[in-house]
Amino acid sequence: MRRSYLCGYDKLTQTSYEHRRDWVEKRLKQIANVFCIDVCAYAIMSNHYHLVLHINTEQANRLSEHEVIQRWITLHRAPVLIQRFLEGETSTEAEKNACLAIIRTWRERLCSISWFMRLLNQYIANEA
């Protein structure tokens, strides 16, 4: 059995991991502000957490292309092509179509629980 504490107190090693609870809460709020996913409830236990989420597809569909980009690049680096799109420097139809395809993908991801959880879990793993 692996002894892994997300937060709480490990009596065996007498180590407190309670500070990690704040990491989870802050990252959860940050991701929820970016994604079109509402956090209805959550509980953080010593070795796992529970989330109740609502996917807000209507909100995602109402976002403009620029809003989708701004939300996504809050958590990720923007590819050069998207940077050029934001600056109005995409000159060919192929570049514009490539940007629109990227934006469509990002819009879908902003409603994806898998991507939401991926970003939350990666952050926790990197910090721990």
UniProtKB/TrEMBL annotation:
GO biological process, one term: DNA transposition
GO molecular function: DNA binding; transposase activity
The name this protein goes by in its record: Transposase
Organism of origin: Photobacterium galatheae
